[in-house]
Fold:
Amino acid sequence: MEVLFATSNKGKMEEAAEILKEAGVKVRQYAFRYSEIRSDSLEEVARDAVQAAYKRCKQPVFVEDAGLFIQALNGFPGTYSSWVLKKLGIKGILKLMEGVHDRSAYFEACVAYQEDNYTIAMFHGKCFGRITEEPRGSKGFGFDPIFIPEGENQTFAESITLKNKLSHRYKTLLEFSKSLKLRR
Amino acid sequence: MEVLFATSNKGKMEEAAEILKEAGVKVRQYAFRYSEIRSDSLEEVARDAVQAAYKRCKQPVFVEDAGLFIQALNGFPGTYSSWVLKKLGIKGILKLMEGVHDRSAYFEACVAYQEDNYTIAMFHGKCFGRITEEPRGSKGFGFDPIFIPEGENQTFAESITLKNKLSHRYKTLLEFSKSLKLRR
Structure:
């Protein structure tokens, strides 16, 4: 079985291919130009994107969207995480969090999978944790250097093993993979 | 002549009606649900929105989009201004600007007007100025209390006369109004 992954991100592509391989599913990258909608809901963004992708490619395809939701900032940067990272960087987030006591946050990922004209399946994964006072570690990408998962002492950027095991994206892809296995 | 204004904002509606009246144009509010696209360009956002609106209403219609672009923050919050205001507030912007020497910023507005199946006209207006160290004034809305236009000493929230005369939105609507006058 082959499914397309509509993404321009090579790192995400490799991660997904690795996880879905175990379900006997081959993943092929599908690059397509598309304007994401604005919404505070990852699910809405992913659902709209996968519908646009399916309309174009007419074969089983999935999209993945993720974001960092910081409690004290009303869920900022949320579904706009990559845009905010580009504009303000990690520094901007730490500045906004200066002197803020409640540092709780979570990463969330969402996969939307469209198989045919009628069926869209959604998968979610969250990873709860906290925002550090300063960046730590150089692995991973995005906000990894300032996020420590619950019950741990290292950031995602300090331990790739930690990230692979606990990450929102890993959990979500795993759910997706299990579901594909059942369908086959 | 009557044109529709696709907006859910009553304040914007009244402002537009007032300005376009002088061109002999009647403005009627057109409320429609629509997911704005993500883009760093006001023009792209407005163009997509007006096309969606025209498809629905099939009569002359315009949309207006605006944002605050802060130089030292790489144009943040830009086309996401209202979302950022909701999440971080004016306080968040001032926190990001703490200790920042270059306080230059501009407001930009863009009107997209679709008259028939083929014609879309775009109008732009900018107002250059600077970000204050603290909020001042209680008039207007949005980021008005922290924006002082070039060559002035008061924020948009301290002087509504100033805002009405200099604002990006006023300039843009005026251009639009002139153009409608010529078309008639």
